[in-house]
Amino acid sequence: MTTTTRPTGRSSAGRLGASFRATAHPRTVGAALRMLLVATVVLGILYPLAGVAVGALMPARAAGSLIEVDGTAVGSSLIGQAVEGDAWFHGRPSAVDNDAMASGGSNAGPNSPDLVAAIEERRAEVAAREGVDPASVPADAVTASASGLDPHISAAYAALQVERVARERGLEVEEVEALVAEATSGEPWLALGDATVNVTVLNASLAALG
Amino acid sequence: MTDLIGVAVLVGLLALLQWPLGTLLARAATSTRHLRVERAVYRVVGVAPDAQQSTRSYAGAVVAFSTLGVVLLTAILLMNRALPFSEGTAGMGFAGALSTAISFVTNTNWQWYSGEVALGYTAQAAGLTVQNFLSAAVGIAVAFVLVRALAAHRSATLGNFWVDITRITVRVLLPIAAVSAVLLIAGGVIQTLADPTTVTGVTGAAQTLPGGPVATQEAIKQLGTNGGGFFNANAAHPFENPTAWTNLLSMVLMLAIPFSLPRALGLILGNRRQGYAVLGAMTTLWVASAGLLIWAEHAAGGLAPTAAGAALEGKETRFGLTASALYAASTTGTSTGSVNAMHDSLTAPGGLIASASMGLGEIAPGGVGSGLYGMLVIAILAVFLAGLMVGRTPEIYGKRIRAAAMTRVALYTVATPVLVLAGFAATMAIPSLHSAVTQDGAHGVSSALYAYLSAGNNNGSAFGSFDSSGTPQLLLMGAVMLLGRFLPMLLVISLAGVLAREPRVPAGAGTMRTDGPLFTVLLVGVAVVVALLTYAPALALGPIAESLA
Known about the structure:
The complex is a heterodimer.
Chain A: H1 12-24, H2 26-57, H3 59-62, E1 66-69, E2 72-76, H4 113-130, E3 152-154, H5 155-169, H6 173-182, E4 196-198, H7 199-209
Antiparallel strand pairs in A: 1-2, 3-4
Chain B: H1 2-30, H2 36-45, H3 55-78, H4 94-105, H5 115-118, H6 121-151, H7 161-187, E1 191-192, E2 197-200, E3 206-209, E4 212-213, H8 214-223, H9 244-269, H10 272-299, H11 303-308, H12 320-333, H13 348-359, H14 370-390, E5 395-396, E6 399-400, H15 403-429, H16 431-434, H17 441-456, H18 471-501, H19 517-548
Antiparallel strand pairs in B: 1-4, 2-3, 5-6
Helix pairs in contact in B: 1-7, 1-9, 2-7, 3-4, 3-6, 3-18, 4-18, 6-7, 6-8, 6-14, 6-18, 7-8, 7-9, 8-9, 9-10, 9-12, 10-12, 10-13, 10-19, 12-13, 13-17, 13-19, 14-15, 14-19, 15-17, 15-18, 17-19
């Protein structure tokens, strides 16, 4: 912390020693420790708590964008859920079974034989479930997402499922299509990202119909 | 085609931001005035803000501050279960805690653990978030040191470390992070101290939803080019990055400071065109990497993308191919290492570009601070090579480059590649390290090379199939991250000491211009040639072999 000029004629061993003394100097160590403590209080405690206070002003968002059916929270509109049965829309495959406390993808490589086998299996499964040609199953229906919690599917995959869901629920196809349209995001924001259908929101609106 | 509008919006926002942010950074680096809150910090810490430090003293402060940072963070991580709001998380053993502490202090943020499983809210906030700020501040401070040394005339001092990190935090990082955190909360990123909540899902299956002070950590994680996620899935997790526009904001944050520092360089040197030449080189490399990655993911080569019809494995629907690829290029080009798609499942050419982007030495546009000083080292190398060709003493920004400076530049250029290739080789050769490789064939080789490119260059992203949770890998990666951060950093401080003592001479007839497009081309050429010569053989064994398969 004081101005020093480099003495001439020092050996390199001497310079190394001086460097070490500069690191281990009690004043340097003391300042470093106090700086760390100040930072921990301000940046590690006050800043996050201030964020929590701001979050309390936007509770719907800060608490996880919960959605309710008949007054009971059934999940987050941002998080995909495991779906069983033909009366519902199915989301994308999940490498973590939609466990929201253990997010992650398959991390399978682009030429992984296991992944190729899984893709073929999913394709056959979806085609059988929807009663369509396997070639018409879209890519998002046969690939696991990055988070394992992706709530969205492509418009194509939603369209593929409309008929089955309408049949199973005894609804008109147009009614289900209207619900799909409600759960579809508008124009992609500034064209980054694709138009998507939120399966969690869509299934919740089906559930609300009873 | 419409996707390109989104890319253009990102570029436009960055071009607008670098103007005021570059000015702000230049003032923080050179101002002689102290804010009231800064004076309060100096009083509590016990430093004299107007004292100037020698090379040794400045380097000593960096080392002491970072070493104690590792010690404190290791202790906090080990205490996880005893801290408030630990939420029943598992915590870490000693090797894991030490490796993680090194990882965050070195601005790497390699995640061998799942955040939501391993760490409670206090350890994440009071431990990891703090180093997200401080490691970024240290990186920018060292860039300030080098820039001030280039602008100095026969100076024996480099500035004051405590003033640098305080100003960077108070004037730049904290205000931007705070505003961004509010925007992220508005976008749906959670910010709560509530426990995880279990609900009965729509179709009957129970689901537990996590809580945590995520938005405040997310903001600085991107802004500081840190990259360590609150959750395992990082910025692919809907609670970290819920929408297309939070994704755009995340990319703006990670690129903002690296792309603004060249303007600060130009302002401090008194010639803004010097900054533009450097900015041009960073932009060229980033655009090339982003363009190639976007092309590769849309082309969907490889067995799995062909089988599926698109390269969507490991990608989120709300981002799609273009925003995922653009993010991958940005996070590997900036040393951030946060991910919104799983890089392991990128197409083979996509994974190659991401690897090569780190192999450039994190200069496209690089980490906060480290990107600029890395590019300035390339610049000195470039004028040296050009000087050899025409037989003149190389000079840059009015500084003669003599043997002492050139030795440091050479060591800097060699240091990281040696660490990367040694770690990679050791992993491939030693069984207890090789057990981290869980995929067969060339892709397994790619995962190990990616891991050490990431650790040595302090990026932090991963091919997730590489399981580094074993003690030997934790310790080797810890050592590579530590040396990969501080060897180059100390060489830069030492280089700054040498350059500061040089007189600043006016440009002569034989001086090579460094403020025009020709120099930009030279910078890009030297950066690419050095990286290619260094890593081409290793890349051929992994991602290039995969791409040709």
